[in-house]
Please model this.
Amino acid sequence: MEIYEKVSTGLKGIDQAIDRLRLGDNVVWQVDSIASYKRMVGPYVEQAKLDGRKLIYVRFANHEPVIKEDPEIKIFKADAKKGFESFATTVHSLVEQEGRKAFYVFDCLTDLLEYWHSDLMIGNFFKVICPFLYELDTIAYFAIMRNAHTYSTIAGIRETTQVLIDLYQVKDNMYIHPLKVWKRYSPTMFLPHLVKGQEAICITSSAEAAELFSAINRSEERLDYWNVIFNKAKDVLKQEPKQQEETKRFLMSMIIGDESRIFELCDRFFTLRDILAIASREIGTGFIGGKSIGMLVARKILETEGKDRFIPFLEPHDSYYIGSDVFYTYIVQNNLWKLRMKQKTKDGYFEFAPLLKEGILHGKFPESIQEQFMQMLEYFGQSPIIVRSSSLLEDNFGNAFAGKYESVFCVNQGTPEERYKAFEQAVRTVYASTMNEDALAYRVNRGLSDRDEQMAILVQRVSGDYHKDKFFPHAAGVGNSSNLYVWDKSVDMKAGMLRLVFGLGTRAVDRTVGDYARIVCLDNPLRMLAMNHDDQKKFSQHFVDVLSLEENAHKTCELDEIMSGDINTDKELFGTPDYQAANRLRELGYTDVKTPFILNFKKLLKDTGFPELMREMLALLSKVYDYPVDIEFTVNFTRDNQFKVNPLQCRPLQTKGLGKPVRMPELTDKKDCFFATRGNFMGGNVRLPVDFVVYVKAREYLELSEQEKYTVARQIGMINTKMKGKNAMLMGPGRWGTTTPSLGVPVHFSELCNMQVLCEVASNEAGFMPELSYGSHFFQDIVESGIFYVAIFEGQEGVVFNPDRILEKENILESVLPEGSRFSNVIHISQTTGMEIFSDIVTQKLICK
Model:
């Protein structure tokens, strides 16, 4: 039999009515006024003081204090304005610090609506803090205002708390009505009681009880406070512009966030009607996140500032937004908050992430959210959709989080139940990606590990069309308003550039094996690197990403397979028939030869208005942002070659820009430098000191087993940690960050983020080839982190490369990383104090000496 220590409420009558309090009790008073709550708090506090209890008053509301200042009472002020996670974490830390058997009084929880605007989040806070208080044998008083919360919020509080009491004031009389008293019972416990002084007189007469309850005002309909606010805002549409602007900014603070550069941009272009339209497509409550905001404001800029230039060419969108509060609710209701608190500590940041990720992948959504998910899926029908991360910090000025979080395609085939199940798992996958190692490391490196990362989700209809059993857009890609990828001085950097692919845009933002996106300089779209026919074919796209309706999955197909069918428009917009290859096959005796394509987009760039439209679009967005921008887009053509562009995303592009001109050193003898090149570098005009070179040897690396290649990548990650704050250059064969070890070293970006310079070296002998993946997520990371990039194509005209200048120096690998000594024949670290890199963007010269 469990034995509980009984504690007085300070009022003998109430003690008798509920058989006193127990250590561990959370007591929730449902009240009509703060004055009523104070009448219950006063005796409880005085009794606690008499009993020598440790008393803490948690103060966060704007209402009058419920306890007077008293040297025997600790007043803890918590800032609810900072948001749910920060507030809940702060209170959790307080309770942990104060320890067992402390006594608490909390301000009225209803006042949290002023800051969070959501009933759901008040319920979440109570579900987070109440069990922790119970664990520590505390007693805590809370209050909520009657008729101010939804029935589901009250139900959640009732389920979680140990004691729930209705407190009524009718005329001059005070009544209590216990609704829940955990593990206690008497025949009269749950009847109303009249409180007179220290007495609580039970009302047993049916006539008296009926008279009492008929005098109490009860609300029939209880909408979430969030919905109440937006419903009232609709009426403001009929009022003067000044009132509309004030209401709009208030609503923006609820779905967009605090004052910021992006907030002011939204304020400039969105009307109250726009904000209400966005809110009408939100599932749950809270912020809609950076990716959603970027997409919406970019479209609004193009529609308003572009006047009639862009509207005829824009594909409409009908996106949905899953609010950030749904993420918190999911964490809380799946009992993962305690684990999240452990993960948020310095020691547990990486340690508990895998466990939390696993928990997120297997949770359940609240029924109310499930119903909203289903209604959204019924709206989209069987159209393919994509579930995209849209965290609050994502796609903002300074922090793009490019590629750090997941995006999941839902091909949306099958029964409604199957489609719903796939969608739910897609949302879980995006939520779980907040615990990806790369995302965590990015947050640490950007000084964001202590910031709340509120994960919202953007659900978009996939742009494209059905082509037999496959679904894809004709083209997609990344566009940048500033072009730092220049290979000759005639390129106009301000005209911008595109990284263009056929099919889904996944091949444009990820580094893909054996495939190359088409880089388009928008000042002269047909300009290409000087290369022969075979190179043009080699350095082009050979595979296409599509959605397979038959397999209900994202799939990669060979280009020839797609081009052999009807794509509902002119195929030569995207590729040039490769007659040389066809003739070669015929000469070899093959019959029924279909002419393959070289995917160069030549006709699209030469004979349509697409490149000019994209140049103007990027220029306008950059001008309004007053900052270089990076967009993702699709483009679809009709049979008569008319097209529509769908801007899927827009974010500020972190770039060093041109900078001041650098005086280049003279190079009288090629042996005087470590390397020199013309073009093939990114980062602007620089003069950078290089004190350490970390060099991965191509031939020795190639001879390793695949497992050993991955081990080398992890060694580079540990060296990267040691090089933090030093002027270090990382140099290696092929592509850094590839997922295929035969193409380069498969490091994560977090394993090279401390390097000042990143160098990819072509090795024809070993088969390694750099790829200037401008616009890819990997490149975005390089640019954001201010890493200077250079590719060395040894043997090309104008390229000098003297690796012995490094390799003849002492290899200090063992002193930097003792555990890496077994790879000393593969990884060479030299101290190179005095070495510098010089680059000039105009002449496209680069020298390292």
Summary: Residues 34-50 form the longest helix (17 residues).
